[in-house]
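Worked problem 6 (solution included).
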Amino acid sequence: MRIVNTITLVLLIVGGLNWGLVGLFDFDLVAAIFGEMSPLSRAVYVLVGVSAAWQLVPLFRGIGAGSRSPAHG
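Solution. The predicted structure is:
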């Protein structure tokens, strides 16, 4: 599971940086690298979306566990 979480985190960072570039400079890095709406760029967008959905699981697990953290016993 740790490898999947690391991969999804990297994809979310890529997606976040790409959205930052779109918002600030109207520049889509994924489209610039792989072609606008090419099958490869679409795959990257889908993987970023799936990564976001995957990361909801640990988020809600943490919320469901309450505000207790290992540091606070």
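Discussion: The chain has a mean pLDDT of 89.
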